[in-house]
From TrEMBL, chains A, B:
It comes from the Bacteria. This is DNA-binding NarL/FixJ family response regulator. Keywords: DNA-binding, Transcription, Transcription regulation. GO terms for biological process: regulation of DNA-templated transcription. Coiled coil: none annotated. GO terms for molecular function: DNA binding. Residues 172-220 form the HTH luxR-type domain.
Length: 226, 226
DNA sequence: CCGCGATCGGCAACAACCTGCCAAGGCCGT
DNA sequence: ACGGCCTTGGCAGGTTGTTGCCGATCGCGG
């Protein structure tokens, strides 16, 4: 089931694995030795599913924690869900993770010590596939892109403050939108002005990375927010 | 886990079961003796999941088939998916099921011989719950409502003809909508006029029972069409 | 009390979307 | 060929959603 593709001999290869257990099995020793881990994800499920999480946590918990640089970039939607937001703060506090938020479209990626890149494939249809890349030039390129995204991203605290009030009413707004209620009526039921309601919808769409309401509906459903 | 609520003694009760296996276990003998089965559903998963289907099919396949009246009402969205549409025709042909389509919002329901009503609860959060009702007045009331819906519904053939051309391009339209593409651009990429593209979107929304594009996005995602 | 910053919500201009109308063109049975 | 039937797509007029602007209001620290 594991498909390894040899490349021109420079010591680097690209391996494709299917499923998270397989990924953990193949990479946990890399995590154990790492001093610099960078991670991009659009929600908390991806690298935090019980299997992955327990595997990697096990590899990390024996470590001091101060000596490993842990950077994580998420999309704004993780802050829409109170549970996710809390979990985020927790992993920041227990381990010394630096967490930032970016509005850009990013694929899910892990970088270990600027030597290994793990890129996640499309999650549709059963088990997800992951590419483990050690080819130096590729890893270098991916790393530079990650660093750029990292620099342009804002810290979680700054972003969190900006959407604090949004998070409170987001569930109600999403509910109204999901029932096909017109802005006029929705604003009334929430006791808001139409302008303010639309402000909330716009912020919501930005957080979901959607450029149309249809797209926002799809994303919201994907994330289980409706 | 099974919660049975006794009511005023008239021979009728309401039982609530959780999960489809449990439902099949409790009702398969009813299906075996039935001569009139009516069924309402919004997609094919609900009563056709492997467990339910195999259980009920087993109960029915020993029967002649001509002597049992089988009526099914679906929402239009089942015709959007080619696989679903084909499956629909198959159960119509192999057994003598009459199938109709209604644009109304209907909850998922089964009626057996106008004596027993099975109503499905909200599918959110784990296993679904089902209410099995034998209380005569309730069953009578539900039956009358079902009959009304049945009469106002159109036959699957009539409806199928109406959305035949829609089904062909629905995936592409959904893809464009899901990527947040503007109508103008989407129409161009499909080689359609904007008016026609919007006609397709409107038909799609009607089929999904959505009154806003956000809602359509949610529904489309729920049904796995995007 | 005043000033400051932030949010609210009305207004307006605009963009996007929705739909009835209708002429143009394709398809089919006669 | 002809007439009926359907789909198409332009147009127009309507509704809904999007956004900048700006004064009103609130809370807070000085």
């Amino acid at each position: 089931m594991t498909n390894t593709v040899g490349t021109i001999r420079t010591g680097g290869t690209v391996a494709v694995v299917r499923g998270e257990e397989e990924l953990v099995r193949r990479t946990s020793h890399q995590f154990a030795a790492a001093t610099d881990i960078a991670c991009a994800a659009i929600d908390l499920r991806t690298w935090s599913a019980a299997r992955t999480e327990s595997g990697i946590r096990a590899a990390l918990c024996g470590r001091d924690g101060a000596e490993v640089r842990l950077r994580k970039v998420y999309r704004p939607n993780v802050l829409l869900d109170p549970v996710s937001a809390a979990h985020l703060r927790e992993i920041r506090d227990t381990r010394g993770a630096q967490i930032r938020i970016t509005p850009d479209e990013i694929n899910e990626t892990i970088l270990i010590d600027r030597r290994i890149a793990i890129l996640a494939g499309d999650p549709r249809l059963g088990e997800r596939s992951f590419s483990i890349v050690t080819q130096p030039e590729v890893v270098q390129g991916v790393t530079s892109l990650f660093d750029a995204a990292w620099r342009s991203a804002t810290t979680v605290d700054a972003y969190d403050a900006r959407i604090a009030e949004l998070r409170d009413i987001a569930p109600q707004v999403l509910d109204l939108l999901g029932r096909g209620v017109k802005d006029e009526a929705a604003a009334r039921t929430l006791g808001l002005g139409v302008r303010t309601y639309r402000r909330r919808v716009a912020e919501l769409m930005e957080a979901l990375g959607a450029s149309s309401r249809f797209q926002a509906g799809v994303r919201a459903r994907e994330l289980g927010l409706v």
